[in-house]
Structures are given as C-alpha cells and as structure tokens.
Amino acid sequence: MKSLVCLLICVWIQPEPLSAETSAEEPLILLQETFQEPLSRDWFWGLGTWKAEHGILRGYESGPRRHGPVKMRRFVLGDGIIDFEFRLEGKARFAGMIFNGSQQRGHIVHLVVSRDQIRVLGHAKKGESENLLQKPHQIETDKWYQAQIQFHGPEMTVKVDGQEFTVKADYIAEPKLTFGLGGDSGGPAGEKAGALEFRQLKIRPAPAKQTAGIGKIGDVRRLHTGFQFTEGPAADAEGNLYFSDLPTEKVYRVANDGKLTTFLEESLRTNGLFFHPDGRLFACQSGSQKTQGAPAQIVAYDPSTGKFQVIADECEGKAFHRVNDLVLDSQGGVYFSDIGGSAKRPGPSGIFYCSAEGTVTQLVKDVSRCNGVLLSPDEKTLYVLPSGQPDLLAYPILAPGRIGPGHGLGTLVQKEGQPQAGGDGLTVDVQGNLYLTRPRANCIQVMSPAGETLAVIPFPEGPANCVFGGPDRKTLYVTARTSLYAVRMPIAGFQLTNQTGLTDEARSAIRSEIQAVIREGYYPGISILLIHKGKVVMREAHGVVDIETREPFTVDQLCWLASTGKLFTATLMASLVDDGLLTFDDPISKTFPEFANIRLPDGTKPRQPVRFRHAMSHTSGIPNDNWLKAEKHLEKDSPQLADYVSPQTPQAFVNGCLKLGLVVEPGTIMMYGRPIDLSACVAEKVTGKTFIELMQERVFKPLGLKQTTIQPTEEELKKLAPLYSSSKPGVFEPDHFGLEVAERQNKRLSTAGGGVYSTLDDIGTLMQLHLQRGKHHGKQLIQAETLQQLYQPQPGTNGRYGLAFQIKDSQVNGHSRILSHPGYSGPVAWIDFERDLVGVLLMQSNTVNRTKHHNRIIDTIYRFVPAEPASH
Fold first, then answer.
1. CA-closest candidate to residue 107, choices 92, 118, 96, 117
2. Which of 254, 79, 208, 247 is nearest to 155 (CA)?
3. Average pLDDT over residues 38-48
4. Residue 261 contacts by C-beta under 8 Å, 6 or more apart in sequence?
5. What is the maximum span of the chain, computed from C-alpha positions, in angstroms?
6. Could you give the C-alpha distances from 826 to 283, 559, 563, 564, 850, in angstroms and in order?
C-alpha cells in the first residue's frame, strides 16, 4: 500500500464565479422512434399485425375483430411534447394515441383523429370515460398529417392539421407509464380493408419545466476552470467538495467559501469518490498512467493524512480493469462499477459489491460499459447509468449485496439528430429524485423515482458527474470537462449519515437478547429485520430451523405467518377502499342481503348492522371458537360448525355465520376469531375475483413480493420452516396447522385471517409501505388517508385493535405507538411512526410465551431507537 500525503497547496484557477451561458445548441429529445428497424422490446404488447420498416410503423387488423389494431410501448411521461405523423389507408376510420397509468389505474387520456372529427377521451377512473373534446374536422385518406400533444400539469394541448385545442382535467397530470399507437384500420379483412401508418415519433421535455420545487433556482456558475477532465465529486459532512482531474491524476478540495486547494498530487487516477459517515473518503483508483503497475482498486482515504487502505482489488481472483464509480450503503458495504477491459487488457465489466467484511461479488454482468452507480435513499433500489445505452437501469435490492432482475426505469434525453448516447454519473436528493449527467446533451436530467423526467438543466460543457454539497446540501456541484460548476437548488441532496443506523453496541445487545430467548428453549431459531428511517439496519438469523437436521435458520427462510398475515389482508382491503369498491362502514348486507336478517340471542334485530369494519376488528358480535367451546361446548370439529370452521365456498361461510347468529351487539365487544374472513367473502363478491387473485394483483405484484404466496407449491412447501408447538422448555412437538392451511388454500379456499407464507424481506417491504404512508419506490399505491383508518382504535376493543392491526404503546426511550400483528406460529411484524421503524421477527413455534418474548426483544431494540414526534 502506498501512502499519499495531503498537500494543502492553494490554487486559485478562477477566483470569481462567472455566470455561465446555459442554452442548449440543439433541441433535446426524450425519445425518437425512426421505425427503420424492428421494434425494440419496449414495444411490449399489441393487437393486430404491426411492422416497422423504411421509417414507417404500419398496423392493421388480423383475425377475429375485437377492435382496431394497437401497439403499446413502455415510456414514463409526466409533462412533455409528443410529435408524430399519421396516415389512414383504405377503409381506415381513425388513428390516435393512448396514454395509460399502471395496470391497476388503466387508461388516462387518449387522442382520436377520425375522418370527420378530433376527440380527446379522458378517464378519471378505470372503467370510466368522458369526452374532453369533440370537434368536427375533415381529413383525407392516403395523406400524411402532423399531430402534436403537449402535457403540462392538468392541461393537454392538441395540434392536428393546423388546428389547436386545449383540455384540462386533474387526472391528466398523473404519471403516464405507457403509450400506444392505434385506431381502426377498416375491419378484420387485414390489409385488404385498410391500414394505419405512423412515422417521425418524437417526445421532447416540456420547455423550462419546474415541478414541485425541482429544477435550478439560480444561474449556473462556473466556479473554477482550466482542468483537463473533471470527475468524481463528493461532499464531506460539512459540505466541502472534493473532485478529481483524471489526466493530471490530482484530487482537489473546494471549501464552502469557494477556496480551491490540492488534496492529492498523485491520486493514481482516482475517479469516483464517496464519503463514509465516519469521515473516510472512499475512492475508485482506476489504474494510474503515471505509476507503472498501479492496480485498479477501491480504497479508503484518511482525509487528515492522505493515506489510503485497499478495500477491494479483485473479484474471484480476477483483477479489476477500470473501476469507475461507487456508492456506500448503511451496512458499510460498497457498490461500484467497472467500465470493463479491452482486448489488450481484459478485465471484468459490470457492477460489484464489497461487503463490510471484504467479500466481493459481481451483481451485474450483462450490461456493457457500466458507469454511474447509486442507491435510493431507502436503499431499496440500485441505479445503474451505463455509457452505452440510453436508459437508466433500476434493480430491486433484496438484501445488502443481493439484487433482483433489473429494468429500464427511464429514457435519457438526447440531442436531436445525433446518435443515442448513455450517461455518466448521478446523484439523488432527499425525496429520491435522480440527477443524471448527460455529457453529449450538455445537461443534467432530473428524473423522479418512477422514471418521469421532471426537469432539464443545461450546462455550457458536457457534465460528467454531480453531487449535492454546501452547508445546507442545496448546492448542486457539477464536474464538466474543463470546469467545475455550481447551481443552487430548492431541495437538499441526500447524505448518508450514521443517524439512520444502529451502533455496534445496539446490535450486540439485540443479538444477545434474541440468543437468550432461544436458549430458554421455546424456539429453535429466530430471525430479525429492522428498517430504521428507510434503511436496513439489522438483518440476521440465529439458531436452527429444524431440530432434527440442525439446519441453520436463515434470513431467506420461508415461514407460515398465521395471523401476522392479517397485515396483508388489511393492505388489500385498504386498496379496495381506495379504489371506491367498498368502504369500511359498508354493512355486510350490502353485499350479502341475507345478513340483514341476523339476530341477537333473544331474536331481536341489532341496533346497527354488522359492518365491514366490525369483521376486520373482530367486533362483529358473531361468536369465536373460545366462546362456542365455553358456552355451547362445541369443539371445532363439531358437525354444527362445519360451514363456519371448514367452509367449501364463501357463501357457505356466510351461511355458517348466519347460523350462529350474534351473541352481542356489533361494535361492542372484541371476540378474536374467524369472522374476519367475512372481509374476504365481501371482497370476492364485489370484485368477481378470488381472494388469492386479489392478493396477487393488488399486494404481491405491486410490491414485488417474489417470495410471498397464499398457495405454496410443492417446492415451496419443501422449503417451508417446520412448525412446532412448545409448552415446556426444550420440548418441541410437530405442528401441522400451517400445512393444513396450505392444503385448504391450494383448493382455492382462502382465509383472510392467516393464510400467507412469506420471508423476512417481503414482510419488511409490506410494512415499509405502511410506514411510508402508502408509497412504494416513490409511487403512491394507496392513499395515506385510507391506510390511516386501519390504525385507529375501534369501539369495543379497549383501544387495543384497529382494522387488522394490533395497537399498543411503548414507554421505552420515549413514548410511541406500535402497530403490529403477532401470529400463532410465532412471528410479529410492526411499524412505529414515532421511531420511523419497521420491525419483523420470525420464529416458527407456537407457545403461550410468545407475547412476553416479543416484548423483551422489542424493548431491547427501543433502548437504542428513541421515539420522536411523528411527521405527518
């Protein structure tokens, strides 16, 4: 290891900031489809026959007629300008363009141009439509027409054949995730009837766009110039800036007062930089051209001495070629890119991860010229900005150093008329918005976490990288070719700090408490996941999963959640309420009219009907198993309870409840038990889909829960943690309840009360949706106001229960409210708004001591995570 001495040599290259000219030389475009080649995979779905060649996209109906041909493309768009040309051929009646939201949202708005009129159809909700515009206008067949659509917030301006119209609707401002070209080509006779043709499709950013505080608020200033190629900016805890000049192999420091000094005279061609919360400066040494044999490696500098420590210099015995950019996570790991080798000097290309313990793994291999790399503030997404393709890529982070399949998140702006190019570096603000450098487009492109372009900030030179700095983190510093630029922003950049982590002391104490609980002999193993302020701060497993094989309990272990699965049910029901399909105050009789006839023991009608919220809060008045056993001496296998305990259809369960009747007034006493399954019966009848289908479509898929199921396959059952019952320390009896539930649900007979099988990470993702008030990766999946109803104490529960959420207070290290649900099989998952905390404990043993053990572990956690006033 070579020591480098910090040189504080003052170099005033440019003493006064200069106002920079920021106009772009050529128009910028987000998308340009030339239709010279076969369509890319982004054109993901269509009806009819479509062919792209010779600059024209041609479509016509084929086969039995459903409706005219349509071809859909993935592209996230908020505000922007779309230009295209179209032509009707033969008997074709109309052509147009449609814009859709998510699959759950459906159509948003579309333009239809027919032979005799121009129409704009709007869709406030899925399944609804309204005419926003209908104007007479004549067009001819076999003639090309120009069309333009401009979105600006809730306004949509349409220009067709010299005519211009503007319509307005609030929902037009919603993110548009896909668009389609299509229309009516004249009938099912194929090309003999007619065809639709499109060409010259371009999408441009909206001019001078400012979105919710995004975009510059001051002039772009050139702070210093005279360098050869600036790169790799990073800001320390005080906001002072460090950056590299690659050809000279120097690293400079710019203090908050603007003073420029040399930090390193010989940096071994240091490129990307990133500050660790402990003050160390992590760097990509990309292989010096001055010092022969200097390797490409990840190092950590001590800023006070300039000395460095090697963090990683190879992966599986192969040396790196040109490490380029890096980002740290809250676990002390490093994600970094290697732009790849050459024929003369081969080397690995892709994205790598070095854990805090020093283990290096390659995460991405199939993307050439990986360049910029970044994490979302919640560390749920890894962003990769390649140099060789015009897309920002996003990969879900399943665990530190482990990612899922990636996808194109958003398209990079380009200079019109020039070949498509990739990006370089990127940074992120506190809201998760991304700032992408576009060297060939001479701009910074601001993109939302959903992939929507929010703003474009031009620069005089092609930006290579950027970072937020300054005392308030609201100065965007940009390294661009020969200069360093700065521009004030209305929003602060995100900074990795120790404030969102657990100390080693805290982890050690929590770990010790978990191991102490295991030693008491009621649980073979326990796993834990803690997410504090959006970051995974603890994810561990202890003990064994199987007492016979002694196989270790792992963080990936599939477990039956039992009643903890009610948290998934609550989320599903909130999504149905959010879409207006039902309300929590709906009487069950609204869906099942026979419920209007349910009676109290004396034959009288209850003062209020049994409502949906009563079913979800166990206050329906219908007896539970304990009451039936104590008062009626009926066991669960009693023939009288067949429809109530083991119904074969939703209607059978409704009939079983009606047969039992009410034992108390609805909404007065909590009787924990099966009537929560009424919520599933209502949901199925209202939507026409099974509970299992609804859970897949509305919870599992939107959240990307790959390891969660209601119908476990044979392979999944083999991986399922064995369940035990334990009434004495060290005595474990096999418990097959979870397998019986799986068998029942694989016959499509689902339970809302406890039928979910999942893993630590997937449960954490669900609970994070609640802690983030309905947002997932920046998208509002469920409105916060709807979710808030789940957390409110319900009458008859003594303030202890909401809608499928248990409620209790903690006085440890401040006052906070814990919203949770435990399960028969041992698990518990919770959120705590005052502590900004998600917690999950998985253990697969049924014991009467589980509440005591949950409380012990949670109290230990809370000693190190203080309560703060919740933000709303």
1. 96
2. 79
3. 90
4. 8, 9, 10, 11, 252, 253, 255
5. 95
6. 45, 10, 9, 9, 6
Tokens at 671, concatenated: 């009787």
| Cα separation values, 552 from 543, 545, 556, Å | 6, 6, 11
Question: According to DSSP H, which parts of 579-723 are helical?
Answer: 612-617, 625-632, 642-645, 650-660, 677-687, 691-695, 701-703, 714-719
**Contact partners, residue 164, CB within 8 Å, separation at least 6:** 157, 158
Query: For 345-361, how does the pLDDT look when each residue is reduced to its tens digit (9 = 90+)?
Result: 556 679 999 998 889 99
| pLDDT of residue 21 exceeding 60 | no
d(CA 105, CA 738): 35
DSSP string, 730-747: TEEEE--HHHHHHHHHTT
Q: What is the mean pLDDT of residues 160-180?
A: 93
User: For residue 395, what are the CA distances in angstroms to 40, 151, 852?
Assistant: 20, 29, 39
Of 297, 411, 422, whose CA–CA distance to 354 is shortest?
297
Q: How far apart are CA 447 and CA 437, in angstroms?
A: 11
pLDDT above 90 covers a percentage of the chain that reads: 65
CA–CA gap between residue 712 and residue 710 (Å, rounded): 6
What's the one-letter identity of residue 117? Q
Structure tokens at 150: 């401009």
- Paired strand residues for 399: 402
Instruction: Tally Cβ neighbours within 10 Å of residue 747.
Output: 9
Q: Give the strand pairing for 845-846 and 724-728.
A: parallel
With the C-alpha atoms ordered 492, 496, 502, 504, is the resulting torsion angle positive or negative? negative
pLDDT of residue 871: 45
Query: Is the per-residue pLDDT at 8 higher than 50?
Result: no
Read off the DSSP letter of residue 124. Answer: S
* Coil, helix or strand at residue 682: helix
User: Rounded to whole angstroms, how far apart are CA atoms 739 and 8?
Assistant: 68
Alpha carbon distance 521, 523 (integer Å): 6
Q: What is the mean pLDDT of the chain?
A: 89
- How far, in Å, CA of 744 to CA of 4, rounded? 67
- DSSP letter assigned to residue 92: -
Reported confidence tier of residue 500, pLDDT bands at 50, 70, 90: low
Q: Is residue 174 predicted with pLDDT exceeding 60? A: yes
- The mean-pLDDT minimum among 24-38, 335-349, 550-564, 737-751 falls in 335-349
Distance in angstroms (rounded) separating the CA atoms of residues 557 and 759? 6
Q: Give the pairing of strands 45-47 and 426-428.
A: unpaired
Model's pTM, two decimal places? 0.56
Q: What is the mean pLDDT of residues 41-64?
A: 90
Q: CA separation (Å) from 186 to 48, 61, 110, 160, 199?
A: 12, 8, 20, 21, 20
Average pLDDT for residues 467-493, to the nearest whole number?
92
CA atoms in the 13 A half-sphere facing the CB of 531? 28
Question: In the numeric block, which tokens belong to residue 88?
Answer: 């009707």
When pLDDT is averaged across residues 5-17 and rounded to a whole number, the result is: 34
Residues 6+ apart with CB under 8 A from 357: none
Rounded Cα–Cα distance for residues 109 and 730 (Å): 63
Q: Which of 368, 333, 334 is nearest to 350 (CA)?
A: 368
Cβ atoms 832, 816 nearer than 8 A: yes
Expressed in angstroms, the distance from the first to the final Cα of the chain is 50
Residue found under tokens 């369940």 = 723
Token readout for 516 is 């102490």
Specify the 3-state DSSP secondary structure of 416. Answer: coil
Q: To 10 degrees, what angle do helices 566-578 and 677-687 make? A: 40
Between CA 441 and CA 840 the distance in angstroms is 46
Judge residue 292's burial from the number of C-beta atoms within 10 Å of its C-beta, 0-12 exposed, 13-18 middle, 19 or more buried: exposed
**What letter does residue 30 receive in the DSSP assignment?**
S
Judged by DSSP in three states, 266 sits in coil
Question: What interhelical angle do 677-687 and 650-660 show, nearest 10?
Answer: 130
